[in-house]
Amino acid sequence: MIYLFQVSPFRAVRISPLFTVTVLLVHLQTNTHVHGLLKAAEYDFIIVGGGAAGCVLAKRLSEIPDWNVLLIEAGGEENFIQDIPLIPFVLEYTPADWKYRTERSNSSCFGSKFGLCHWPRGRVLGGTTVLNYMIYSRGIRADYDGWEALGNTGWGYDDILPYFLKSEQMTIPSLANDTKYHSTKGELVITYPIHRTKLAEAFVNAGLQRGYNYVDYNVDSEIGYSYLQTTIKDARRWSAYRAFLEPVRNRKNLHVATHSLVTKVLIDEKTRVAYGVEYKNGESQPVQARARKEVILSAGTINSPQLLMLSGIGPRDHLQDVGVKVIQDSKVGYNLQDHVTLGNLYFTLNQSVGLRLDRIVDDLVGAAEYFLKRDGIFTIPGGTEALGFENVGDFVNGEEEVELLLLGSTVPNSYISWHSWGARTDILFESYLPLHNKDAFTILPILLRPHSRGRILLKNKNPCTHPLIDANYFSDRRDIEIIIKGIRRATELTKTDALQKYGAELYRKTILPCKDHEFDSDAFWECNIRYMTFTIFHPVGTCKMGNDSDPDAVVDRALRVRGVKQLRVSDASIMPTVPSGHTMAPVYMIAEKTADLIKTDWLGR
Question: pLDDT of 91-112, one tens digit each?
Answer without folding.
Answer: 988 899 999 999 999 999 999 9
